[in-house]
Amino acid sequence: xxxxxxxxxxxxxxxxxxxxxxxxxxxxxxxxxxxxxxxxxxxxxxxxxxxxxxxxxxxxxxxxxxxxxxxxxxxxxxxxxxxxxxxxxxxxxxxxxxxxxxxxxxxxxxxxxxxxxxxxxxxxxxxxxxxxxxx
Length: 135
Hints:
Blueprint: E1 12-15, E2 22-28, E3 35-40, E4 43-48, H1 51-62, E5 66-67, H2 82-85, H3 107-117, E6 121-123, E7 131-134
Antiparallel strand pairs: 1-2, 2-3, 3-4, 5-7, 6-7
């Protein structure tokens, strides 16, 4: 279960799949468009709020384990990974889920642990090459 309520005053407290970094996320439903705000140290990333439901639905459709494939915005993705879905022209938002130019990547790093905390997915926790699948 997720620690925190997912609000600005009580954010979800999360850890990356390998357990190497702690971060927080919260819903900002007043933003345009509504956003998930991800705070990693002094860095703020923002993603479309609908990413939670969209990623879960995509993982259900995949039907098996999917590589996370996390990458910075300027680095290429590997087809079929969570990161590639988060940038794909044919996803529900028609491209990047990341909202902050220069910080749009790492979708595959920060979204799967949130979905795991919300009870929507299973996530591996290896030092590298983690995978996720829908529950």
